[in-house]
Amino acid sequence: MASENRGEKSQKLISLSRRLSLYEPPPHLNNPARRQHGIPKSANPKRAAVLICIFEGNDGELRVILTQRSSQLSSHSGEVALPGGKREEGDADDIATALREAKEEIGLDPSLVDVVTVIEPYMTRFHVTVIPVIGILFDKKAFNPTPDASEVESVFDVPLEMFLKNENRREVEDEWMGDKFLCHFFDYQSGEKGFIIWAFTAAILIRVATIVYQRPPAFLERRPTLWNGIPDKDLAKL
Hints:
Layout: H1 11-20, E1 47-56, E2 62-69, E3 80-81, E4 84-86, H2 94-106, E5 113-118, E6 122-123, E7 129-137, E8 152-159, E9 169-176, E10 179-190, E11 193-198, H3 199-213, H4 232-235
Parallel strand pairs: 1-7
Antiparallel strand pairs: 1-2, 1-4, 2-3, 2-8, 5-7, 6-7, 9-10, 10-11
């Protein structure tokens, strides 16, 4: 899914892209990104994908694109999220879902995104299986956000490394299906507007940052068991 004819690419992003393309998800995913397609279609409608779109900021740090959901939405209104959503009948795979949703939500042209890998699936409290898709945006200037006002209130970006640091972070203990875990909250200020990145979105970004920077977070993570990968026998039912 590599994009072409974008001029000179960042060496840092090229190196990151190559390294991430070698990432080995759990065996039940069979490294679908290297075949350039996601997990095959299934009959279960409770399936979604999100796009973790990484680019290089002006100061050379790696940043990731996030959205704030519209306050008019019936669920999770006003919350920070990754671009993404539920799989539709016409989607060939999870990568197609993530790219389509990013285009619909924030106007991100799929041709600008180099998909390098997917990571292990997560399951939400509502039993939706979510596949995180990691992509590289080599030419940030070519992306002019055009958010769909019915879904997205604002588009912003944050340093990816912040999800490994203890700064501007707090936690609360929660329980899910008998599993006690820590729910993390990260505060981020962009101009005069403040954002809180928490729960499911924060958990995915902690995991991605761990993979990208090849080191664990500076705090105790303690994730729910199901966030450590869905077993083969369960994935087959999805």
